[in-house]
């Protein structure tokens, strides 16, 4: 009941609270859950550190994600205990925001801490747009304007429903410009698009903005997959003649696992089953978007029937082509080995992708010469779809 009172107080006071006042508001309900203090930690853009969103005048050190109990709560999505402390993963759905730290001399009730943490997540998502406090905090270095444009376009890095999960990573997070992605779940169809525009900087981010806008417009108009690709292609050739984007456009029917895909000049997506990459999906099936005037053939749609638990890995060439000082490419083989090991260790899907991008950065020496973006799409139906397939029933 005391947790209920804490949540009630937070919800009642939050509508009149600015983003920079949230830390004090949250700390003010600590006693209601037998805690001395409650501190919010948010993951930085690079997902390397958890930085404290603490009230003014109360300095708190950041926590490294890879070497602290707070970081372990973030990576495993499980509560962690230390002397006089409890760390709870801070989630909005399946999107990892950070952790909430509860300080107490008593044995804290995890259920009460969970209720408060869930409320904090909702308050952060609803209030952060009204100020720059959270954005400034998450930035460990200046963000370039091109990256500012791209991050403003993107949906959350992770989305999950009962039977599908989409997780993405994007680097270098402070200087991206050409890579962008989008997704949407409409009824039984999950749509995913990944675009790698030519060029760098502001021009590339302008192309990325057009790609996402045209993709969303076509999707929301109700165009099918092939017509969507044609629409984006025509917008590119109309507004930026001679410029283009490679892309992968996907539609997944979550009822029976039917995957429909157009590969527009992009590296082939990888199909991962039972923790192993079993094949590369066909590609390209169309010219890069913006170059359709070179051919009168419509985009070809590839269809694949997924098995329950299958994952599809889509990536840009900035991942595999990252080169270290010795001139060695990160390579597709290294990419697949890393993903397979992470999946076999049963890590949460967002953590698999975080470790992937950290490995790419380490290989390259922390600074990438090209954007590196990857998306992992997972289909995990609660019921066996095979009966529907074999019977032909809808």
**How would you spell out the order of helices and strands?**
HHEEEHEEEHHHEEEEHHEEEEEEHHHEH
Backbone structural class = alpha+beta
Query: What's the CATH superfamily of the largest domain, by name?
Result: PPM-type phosphatase domain
- As a whole number of angstroms, the C-alpha radius of gyration is 22 Å
Helical percentage: 25-40%
List how many beta strands DSSP finds.
17
**Helical region count?**
12
Structural domain count? 2
CATH architecture of the largest domain: 4-Layer Sandwich
Low-confidence stretches: 387-394
CATH class of the largest domain reads: Alpha Beta
State mean pLDDT (0 to 100 scale). Answer: 89
CATH topology of the largest domain: Phosphatase 2c, domain 1
Strand percentage, roughly?
25-35%
Largest sheet: 6 strands, antiparallel
Tell me the overall shape: globular
CA-CA gap between termini: 46 Å
GO molecular function, one term: phosphatase activity
Keywords: Hydrolase
Protein name: Stage II sporulation protein E (SpoIIE)
Organism: Asanoa ishikariensis
What does this structure look like?
The protein has 394 residues and is an alpha+beta fold. It folds into two domains: 2-138, Beta-Lactamase (2-Layer Sandwich); 145-391, PPM-type phosphatase domain (Phosphatase 2c, domain 1). 34% of the residues lie in helices and 26% in strands. The protein contains twelve helices and 17 strands. The strands form three sheets. It has a six-stranded antiparallel beta sheet with strand order 3-2-1-6-5-4, sandwiched between helices. A six-stranded antiparallel beta sheet has the order 7-8-17-16-13-14. A hairpin with a 4-residue loop joins strand 11 and strand 12. Helix 6 (145-153) packs parallel to helix 7 and helix 7 runs antiparallel to helix 8 (225-239). The radius of gyration is 22 Å and the shape is globular. The N and C termini lie far apart (46 Å). Residues 387-394 have low confidence and may be disordered. Keywords: Hydrolase. This is Stage II sporulation protein E (SpoIIE).
């Amino acid at each position: 009941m005391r947790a209920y009172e804490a949540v009630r107080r937070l919800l009642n006071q939050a509508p009149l609270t600015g983003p920079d006042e949230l830390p004090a508001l949250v700390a003010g309900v600590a006693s209601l859950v037998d805690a001395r203090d409650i501190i919010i930690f948010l993951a930085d853009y690079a997902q390397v550190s958890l930085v404290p969103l603490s009230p003014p005048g109360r300095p708190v050190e950041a926590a490294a994600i890879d070497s602290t109990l707070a970081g372990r709560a973030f990576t495993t999505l499980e509560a962690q205990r230390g002397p006089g402390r409890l760390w709870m993963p801070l989630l909005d759905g399946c999107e990892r925001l950070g952790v909430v730290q509860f300080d107490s001399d008593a044995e804290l009730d995890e259920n009460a801490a969970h209720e408060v943490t869930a409320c904090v997540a909702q308050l952060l998502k609803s209030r952060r747009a009204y100020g720059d406090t959270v954005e400034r905090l998450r930035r460990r270095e200046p963000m370039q304007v091109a990256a500012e444009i791209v991050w403003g376009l993107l949906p959350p890095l992770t989305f999950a429903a009962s039977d599908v999960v989409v997780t993405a990573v994007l680097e270098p997070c402070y200087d991206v410009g050409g890579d962008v992605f989008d997704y949407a779940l409409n009824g039984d169809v999950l749509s995913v698009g990944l675009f790698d525009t030519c060029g760098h900087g502001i021009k590339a981010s302008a192309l990325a903005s057009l790609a996402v806008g045209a993709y969303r417009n076509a999707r929301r108009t109700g165009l099918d997959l092939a017509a969507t690709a044609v629409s984006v292609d025509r917008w590119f050739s109309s507004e930026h003649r001679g410029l283009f984007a490679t892309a992968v456009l996907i539609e997944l029917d979550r009822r029976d696992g039917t995957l429909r895909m157009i590969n527009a000049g992009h590296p082939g997506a990888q199909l991962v089953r039972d923790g192993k990459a079993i094949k590369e999906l066909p590609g390209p099936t169309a010219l890069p978007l913006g170059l359709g005037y070179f051919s009168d053939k419509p985009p070809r749609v590839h269809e694949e029937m997924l098995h329950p638990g299958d994952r599809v890995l889509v990536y840009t060439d900035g991942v595999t082509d990252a080169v270290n000082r010795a001139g060695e490419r990160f390579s597709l083989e290294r990419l697949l080995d890393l993903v397979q090991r992470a999946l076999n260790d049963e890590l949460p899907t967002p953590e698999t992708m975080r470790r992937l991008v950290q490995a790419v950065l380490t290989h390259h020496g922390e600074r990438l010469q090209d954007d590196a973006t990857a998306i992992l799409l997972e289909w995990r139906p609660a019921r066996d779809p095979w009966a529907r397939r074999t019977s032909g029933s809808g």
